[in-house]
Design brief:
Blueprint lengths: L2 E6 L2 H15 L5 E6 L4 H11 L5 E2 L9 H18 L4 E5 L3 H12 L3 E5 L14 H11 L2 E4 L2 H9 L5 E3 L3 H15 L1 H7 L9 E5 L8 H16 L4 E5 L4 H11 L5 E4 L4 H9 L3 E4 L2 H6 L7 E3 L7 H6 L2 E3 L5 H11 L1 H8 L10 H14 L2
Parallel strand pairs: 1-2, 1-4, 2-3, 4-5, 5-6, 6-7, 8-9, 8-11, 9-10, 11-12, 12-13
Helix pairs in contact: 1-2, 1-7, 1-16, 3-4, 4-5, 7-11, 9-10, 9-14
């Protein structure tokens, strides 16, 4: 019986790989092992609970204030033990996290085939996003199967000399559409929970956590948010704040006292999707939200200097503001120009239609049966 190990470490990885895990479980001829490294321990558990999934093992690698080097070294050691104890015929990783990079490398050391979900994303700036840009290039170099979310990602991989590339769309859309249906079925519960945080006149959702913006970058981001909140006092600005002290301390010191800014703790995935659904604009540095928001018809201002998701920019779903005054300028333009707002909100999502996991499972099945 073919053996598959799927490794996740962060909340986005779980959101994007759970549809694949569930679809592969339908194949009774596979032995599937879901392994968590615990890179985002609390956030991961919320996702597992919501989707009714439990990993077979949690390596519990994350410790307080852990450096990238220390986490990476521990991940190499523990994932090696896992694959030595429980051999696999295929290791599936997603995206560009340290968990994904280490799992791909350890699988390669064990001469196990590697499947990379969300392959082919690039900025070609090795420090933006950091360390993700280098992580995903390393994964590509050892992967046997590349699941590209878009044609642009396929073109990147082909240009770099890779083959066995399959365009599937992005699995985050699979999870988003399922979550949206669940929220709509239980709308009153969500409405009641966030009643005091939302404004009937309009809401702007903010997410920001990227490592490359620590320090001066978050000063710029917070200053832009403050200017927007003061200019558009009728709107509510809602910011679920990441727990990293480099983010949390800065955001609270600069924005906590502004009346129409609501600072929340990190939210479970379904609650974040609910807030997205209630928003007229999103300011974010998240890769996942750049992919998800177009399916909800919400314009996005990307608070990054580079993005590996240019499809959304080119489709008109989002604008790239940089970590600069462009955040304030572009958000103001979108909020005030009704024609621009309508055009962005109606742009077609270039990241797929919610059937990526099905496409991936077919390729995996054919690959394993050919071994």
């Amino acid at each position: 019986m073919p053996r598959i190990t799927i490794l996740v470490g962060t909340r986005p990885e779980a959101i994007k790989l759970i549809p694949v895990y569930k679809k592969l479980l339908e194949e009774v001829n596979f032995e599937i092992r879901l392994v968590s490294t615990g890179q985002h321990k609390e956030m991961l558990q919320n996702v597992f609970d919501f989707f009714g999934v439990s990993p077979q093992v949690d390596l519990g690698l994350m410790t307080k204030n852990q450096t990238l080097s220390l986490f990476t070294s521990r991940a190499f050691e523990e994932i090696d033990k896992e694959l030595s104890k429980n051999p696999a015929d295929l290791v599936i990783v997603q995206g560009d996290t340290t968990t994904a990079m280490v799992a791909a490398m350890v699988g390669y050391y064990h001469q196990i085939d590697i499947a990379h979900v969300e392959a082919g994303l690039r900025t070609y700036n090795k420090y933006s996003p950091f360390p993700e840009e280098v992580n995903r290039r390393i994964i590509s170099s050892v992967a046997n199967i590349h699941f590209a979310p878009t044609e642009k990602a396929r073109e990147v991989l082909e240009k770099e000399g890779y083959n066995n590339i399959h365009v599937t769309g992005n699995t985050t859309i699979d999870s988003l559409l399922l979550t949206k249906r669940i929220i709509e079925t239980n709308a009153k519960t969500y409405d009641l929970k966030f009643k005091s945080d939302l404004s009937k006149k309009g809401n702007v959702l903010i997410t920001g956590h990227r490592r490359e913006s620590f320090g001066e970058g978050f000063d710029i981001i917070c200053d832009a948010i403050e200017k927007l909140a003061r200019k558009y006092s009728e709107l509510q600005f809602i910011y679920p704040v990441h727990l990293n002290p480099n983010v949390k301390d800065k955001v609270f010191s600069k924005l906590e006292e502004i009346q129409n800014i609501v600072l929340l703790p990190p939210l479970p995935y379904d609650e974040l999707v609910y807030l997205m659904m209630q928003s007229k604009l999103i300011l974010t540095d998240s890769g996942g939200i750049q992919e998800e928001a177009p399916s909800l018809n919400i314009p996005v201002v990307v608070m990054r200097n580079d993005t590996e998701r240019m499809e959304g920019i080119e489709a008109g779903c989002s604008v790239l503001a940089g970590v600069s005054d462009g955040i304030f300028d572009l958000a103001s333009e979108i909020l005030e120009d009704k024609r621009l707002y309508w055009k962005m909100s109606q742009a077609q999502n270039p990241y797929g239609a919610g059937d990526a996991a099905k496409k991936i499972s077919i390729v995996v099945k054919n690959h394993l049966h050919s071994l």
